[in-house]
User: What shape does this take?
Amino acid sequence: MNSAEASSQHISRSDPQVNIDPLTGLGNAQALREKVCQLASDRAADPAPFTIGLANLDGFKPINDLFGPAAGDAILRQVANRLVACVPDGVTVIRASGDEFAFVLPLIFERKTAEKMGLMLKEVLSAPFDLGERNVRLSASFGFAIYPFAGSEFDDLLKSADTALYRSKRRGRGQVTVYSQEIAQEMKRATQLEQALRNAIIADEVDVHFQPIVNLKDDMVVGFEALARWCDPDLGYVSPAVFVPLAEERGFIDSLSEALLRKAAHAALSWPKELFLSFNLSSAQLTDPNTSANVLAIVNRAGLEPRRLELEITETAVMMDAEIAKKIIDDLRSAGIRVSLDDFGTGQSSLGRLREFSFDKVKVDRAFVSQISTDRACEHIVKAIVAMCDGLHLEVVAEGIESFAEALKLKALGCGMGQGYFYGKPADAVTTLRYIAEKYQDKPTAIAV
Assistant: This one.
């Protein structure tokens, strides 16, 4: 034991309140350390396994920001009460920090039992929280680590539990992960991928491809959506479904997005001026008050007219911080940039977003388009979206058109624009320029890039 640990334990023995979280009455991070170290010491002669767990509330910060710190504190106290009430005898519940709670589970020895415990706790925390005049719902993500397999020292064990929790967070809300060597390798690969991606951004090696967006009345191209593509010399082709979320999670999506926008804007300068460039903004960018200024600076430096740029955002991104997002959208539209609501129909309250925010266009999610020829419900949903947008003076783009039958059905429903493999796969800047030259020379036919 080093002097710092001895001092800490001496303080805790002389003043028990040092180990207590004043808000919830649970033990705190220091209590967690002492409990785990004591349990490991008790089992030193015969190191029987035990488990520690971490739980982090999903979406707590927006709730805390929206309703205020007093409401946040009320939720944390309710979380503490629920956890204490539902765990088996002998389990210690601790508030580790902020909206993160910890558990010491002496009688859980293996993965399946830990997963069952996590699922039970997740269910307990899924019920609404009472804030007086209103109720709110939250989910929680969990990470578990089993001693001594995930670490025989406290710091190693806690790091393993934190790695498992981080993986749960990466997979989405309300996930449960138990640490294993496979997960450790997965997270190591993610870190290696992150470093490679950071280097690729610095070296300007992440490319932009362009997918045509067409007017469904005559199949003439009206613009292109910019899509990120990355082929690493060592890793090979890496899907944007992998590296874009990674950049968001690790906090450098801004640099990636700005690099791609610069490339895309320069490429669009070579197109006929009536063609627009569509570009996706990330959820992180819609919580940054500097986003509108950054976008306009890039566009102006490139020499692209703002009216030729269209920015796509998702409802989920908008709701990360609705107030800031609204200001960004208003500033961009005031500068002449159009804003499109992407993946329409997949959010929980898309109609509300159309009322609260100013958009120029709606993109119908491919989940509806892909079944429009075979599912009457999808057909009626798309028909209703088109009619509604027509009444609101919003343009409509159908995403993911992959067959002539889908294109024909969308034309019949009055959908204005479309994109998908039927009209063209994403292609690099040179191929896109060649396609444009051929397209403007010939009569309109279905696009095949």
Notes: The chain is about 45% helix and 20% strand. The longest helix spans residues 181-202.
